[in-house]
Amino acid sequence: MIVFDLTCAAGHRFEGWFGSADDFAAQSASGLLSCPSCGAAGIERVPSATRFNSGAVENAPAAKPEQALQGKDPMAIAQILYARLVDQMLTTSEDVGKAFPEEARRIHYQEVPARAIRGEATPEQHAELVDEGIPVLRIPMPSRDQFS
Fold first, then answer.
1. If you ran DSSP here, which 8-state letter would residue 50 be given?
2. Closest Cα partner for 13 from 22, 38, 1, 28?
3. How many CA atoms lie within 13 A of 94 on its CB side?
4. Does 52 fall in a domain?
5. Burial class (CB in 10 A: 0-12, 13-18, 19+), 107
6. 70 and 135 in one domain?
7. Statement: the pTM of the whole predicted model exceeds 0.90
8. Can you give the residue range of the structural domain that contains 96?
């Protein structure tokens, strides 16, 4: 069995269990997949947090997060933290795509309810948002193509 993190067009995130990557592709192409929250079709794979094998026994009690990172290579720590950050952002924010600058302004000026968003902005658009005092952060995100 293989577990994929999936999302629907409405942004609901959930897991799907498949016999293989080909099994997922076949079910997707046949329109057999739908969102368990809203029933929407158009299901896509999304990046998932990478599992790093630290050599720990599977049934061992879970260590505190800071203990789990002690003694690890700094690059491995960076990869773990980046994977957690990406997963958290994809899970808790709404993708507004190229409308990001306009939506960030609407939220900042309280024209719409505040919420976590992510999307695309050119370097110029990012600089304009910063100049306006709108808190934004540029974080490189993996493309969906890397996970299909």
1. P
2. 38
3. 12
4. no
5. middle
6. yes
7. no
8. 65-141
Q: How confident is the model at residue 38 (pLDDT cuts 50, 70, 90)?
A: confident
From start to end of the chain, where are the E strands?
2-7, 13-18, 44-45, 94-97, 117-119
Which range among 4-18, 86-100, 109-123 has the greatest average pLDDT? 109-123
Does residue 9 form part of some domain? Answer: yes
pLDDT band for position 111 (cuts 50, 70, 90): very high
Question: Residue 18 and residue 3: Cα distance in Å, rounded?
Answer: 6
3-state secondary structure 70-104: CCCCHHHHHHHHHHHHHHHHHHHCEEEECCHHHHH
Residues 6+ apart with CB under 8 A from 28: 43
Identify the residue whose tokens are 């999307």.
Answer: 119
Strands 2-7 and 44-45: what pairing?
antiparallel
pLDDT of res. 56 = 52
Q: Do both 36 and 69 map to the same domain?
A: no
